[in-house]
């Protein structure tokens, strides 16, 4: 504490100034102790002080006196990483980022599904990939490009003179080989077709193509050509401009669209504008035409074997082969073919197995052996036993070894055995979709509204 006499000075006389916390105003001496702490406040502050700071490794305390600092012996930069990892450390921020470089090596890749089942993706000494011990197909057999070709089915075979109706004329040229086709310009509000014809037995949704070769005459040529199928307005006609055609060479032109109905009309020239309001008007004039045809262009054909490791889905599945009865094939005529469709079932997602066996029984019990792999792919096995040329009855049962079928019969003789089962292999269980009915991704379109065309008969 400071003696007040020291603050105001010794001796007598008038005091005119003082040092803080004292002050003189109008001859009055005052003292301001607001910035000072009393004994109670000091004791409260001292009660919360920490006398000794101790830390555990990797922290250390450094400094002396009133200055102390906490530091750590662990530095992110001192951590080492193995092959396949990239590390970026900051000792200042105390952080370390790790990322894969793609060069890591491991004996198995473990993957966990939504049911918490863990499976291993590994490889064997032959270089094969194994998924949960099952061998997977490798890309040695894959093809980067599939040589697919469109399936062709003629509806109207190439001709210069198709069967047709309409307001224009379609006249064979002399010498034959092409036709001279006229297009009278239509100007009324309701516009009909210059040329049209009907094709039937179409598959709704499949694509069909109108194709023809055209050439401009030396004079009086059209300035455009409209080609299309009447489908109630779903697809506009294809417009061919005369600027893309020639007076000295033939140009192949075409229009392709999916069939809206099983029976439709093809047309050349003016379109039904009430149904196709955005289509261009057909110009008046003449055009030379040859090789007019209509054909199915839906679907693709794969000429060799195709292996699919995963699932294969199709609206309908069948085999289509050259008819095995050679007596039906007549040289110079279209070949006969034979088609069968697959048996479909909703009872077994992933596939249904079926095997046929015939056995001759010399006693009322007998066994037949299925292949050793049968027990690995078959579950829910059903066995039906049918008598041949007698009226006995019998039943079959699959024994516990999973491959032996024991047949019990009321009499000896010849029996047919039909074995069906559901698949239980990993491909069928893990890769095949399980839903029987489900919503896809496509939005259902509004159905086209057919319009009556008075020009059609």
Structural commentary:
By secondary structure, this protein is mainly beta. It is 5% helix and 38% strand. It contains four helices and 30 strands. Strands 12, 13, 14, 16, 19 and 21 form a six-stranded antiparallel beta sheet that branches. Strands 7-8-9-10 form a four-stranded antiparallel beta sheet, with no helix packed on it. The chain has a four-stranded antiparallel beta sheet with strand order 15-20-17-18, with no helix packed on it. Strand 9 and strand 10 form a beta hairpin. The chain is flat and about 145 Å long.
Helical run tally: 4
Give the overall form: flat
CATH level 1 class label of the domain at 153-296: Mainly Beta
**CATH evolutionary superfamily of the domain at 153-296:** Galactose-binding domain-like
Helix content: under 10%
Do you know the CATH topology of the domain at 153-296?
A: Jelly Rolls
Structural class: mainly beta
**CATH architectural type of the domain at 153-296:** Sandwich
Tally the beta strands: 30
Query: Kindly, what is the distance between the CA atoms of the first and last residues, rounded to a whole number of angstroms?
Result: 125 Å
Radius of gyration: 46 Å
Q: What's the story with the biggest beta sheet?
A: 6 strands, antiparallel
What fraction of the residues are assigned to beta strands by DSSP? Answer: 35-45%
Mean pLDDT: 82
Residue runs with pLDDT of under 50 for 5 or more positions: none
